[in-house]
Amino acid sequence: MSLVIVGTVAFDSIKTPSGKADRVVGGAASYIALAASHFVREQELISVIGEDFPDEFLSVLKSRGVNMNGLVTIEGGKSFFWEGSYHEDLIGRDTVTTELNVLEGWVPVVPENSKSAKYVMLGNLDPSVQMSVLDQISTRPDLVVLDTMNFWMDIAMESLKKVISKVDVLMINEEEARQLTGLKTLPLVAAAVHKMGPKTVVIKKGEHGAIMFEEGKTFFSPAMPLEKVVDPTGAGDTFAGGFIGYLARLGDTSWEAKKQAVVVGSVLASFTCEDFGTKRLQTLNESEWHSRMRQLRAMVKFRSIRG
Ligand code: AMP
């Protein structure tokens, strides 16, 4: 398997200015896998769910080439549950509840045929689980990407820093990047992250796009301006899935490929925001995202300036 992903597979209850959704299917790994499935035919999903999780969603993942050997169901267990409430600006959000449930004490096992994966996506979850997955990969992957959030910085900073030191790309939102480094301006934040280990830092800025730093180089992609944002939950995970899925498809980890991958991630993430949970991502087809890709490209192309 060329792409291995680990992250939560969960139930989410979400409140946004557009309305509410109760216990919809979510979790970082769900969004990542759906997004990456546009680029890779097969991927390994490492996660844990309870008996309460719906088979229908697992069938959707399977139909998109997601292998389930690394997905453990705990008998009688309850799946990870997250409840969030968004502010009017749809950028700020409050976590109302985080119930780890089956995630607590779970030790991930990477199936034998995925131990030589070339691309590894350490999606948002307990950093000690991210580390355990990475430790089981026997040959050095071409690219390891890590995403995380403030919840883990608050309760497991040391363990998080340990796994960050082992990855190639840190993907993080703006506010969390500042929390991680204690610095304000993004070039300084990026320099501090480079010192922690990752050669590349991608900072997600919500509706204001994403900025990537690598060895003195900087690249910025706007986000697709949307008339209506229903629910931004999972936009960051969708971005990550599009980013690594695209690179795995190319088999290329160069700066130029990563620039394209940032744009792919931004375009896919814009669809996630159009409906609650994973709904929109489940119906997204290739011609829709290709068309938005062309719109985004047209938005940033201009003739060179004459003096
Ligand atoms: P995002 O909006 O990209 O930050 O991702 C939201 C998704 O992350 C939701 O589907 C949640 O189930 C999941 N999530 C929320 N909190 C956590 C956490 N502490 N660890 C792992 N996944 C989480």
Helices and strands in order, then pairings?
Layout: E1 3-6, E2 10-16, E3 19-26, H1 28-36, E4 43-50, H2 55-63, E5 66-67, E6 71-74, E7 80-86, E8 93-99, E9 119-122, H3 127-136, E10 143-147, H4 150-164, E11 169-173, H5 174-181, H6 186-196, E12 200-204, E13 210-214, E14 217-221, H7 235-250, H8 255-272, H9 279-283, H10 286-300
Parallel strand pairs: 1-4, 1-9, 2-7, 4-5, 4-6, 9-10, 10-11, 11-12
Antiparallel strand pairs: 2-3, 7-8, 12-13, 13-14
Helix pairs in contact: 1-7, 3-4, 5-6, 7-8, 8-10
The site of adenosine monophosphate has 17 residues, from strand 2 and helix 7.
Whole-number total of structural domains? 1
Strand percentage, roughly? 15-25%
Quickly name the level 1 CATH class.
Answer: Alpha Beta
- Average predicted local confidence, pLDDT: 97
**Distinct small-molecule ligands in the complex:** adenosine monophosphate
- Estimate the global geometry from the Cα principal axes: globular
CATH fold-type name: UDP-N-acetylmuramoyl-L-alanine:D-glutamate ligase
The CATH architecture category equals: 3-Layer(aba) Sandwich
